[in-house]
Amino acid sequence: MQKLNAGFTLVELMIVVAIIGVISAIALPLYNDYISTSRDGALVSSMATMEVFQEDLLMRTGAYGIGTTADTSLFDNVGWDPRDSGKATYVVALVGTTGYTVTATDNSGYVLCRQFPGGVACP
Questions:
Q1: What's residue 1's pLDDT?
Q2: For residues 7 and 43, what is the distance between their CA atoms, to the nearest angstrom?
Q3: 0.85 cut: is pTM over it?
Q4: N or C, where is the chain less crowded by C-beta within 10 Å?
Q5: Closest Cα to residue 121, out of 21, 6, 43, 63?
Q6: DSSP string of the chain, one letter each residue
Q7: What domains does the chain contain, in order, with CATH numbers?
Q8: Which whole-number Å values give the CA distances from 74 to 46, 50, 66, 123, in the listed order?
């Protein structure tokens, strides 16, 4: 009588490990790009909302507001409080007399800077 061996051979296990390695090598960079894109989207969305408040302030007072969300001076000056309060810090600085820059830093240390009006990346 012949005894049947049940299980996987070493070659089969090595093939599975190689397939998992290839899938991981492809998926990890794509996942990191996805996270970066979503992080940009959240910060840019908050900046666009703040732009509306800045334009309103410009119409009412003739000047843009400056400040930071870290010490609530941005809320006091502009009236804007971000939805992601506590998850990111926003700093607004004037650029000449016709614009301002917004620098956003999230909790992971990721920094995004935009110059307004226009919303273009900071030089």
A1: 63
A2: 52
A3: no
A4: N
A5: 43
A6: -PPPPPS--HHHHHHHHHHHHHHHHHHHHHHHHHHHHHHHHHHHHHHHHHHHHHHHHHHHHSS---EETTTTHHHHHH----TTBTTEEEEEEEETTTEEEEEEEETT--EEEEEETTTEEP-
A7: 10-121 (3.30.700)
A8: 13, 10, 6, 23
Token reading at 53: 């408040």
For 40-99, the pLDDT digits (tens) are: 888 888 888 888 888 888 888 888 888 887 777 777 777 777 766 668 888 888 887 788
How crowded is residue 44: how many other Cβ atoms within 10 Å of its Cβ? 15
Residues found in the chain:
123
The answer to whether residues 58 and 64 touch, using CB atoms and an 8 Å cutoff, is yes
| 4, two tokens | 């049947």
**Owner of token pair 């941005």:** 74
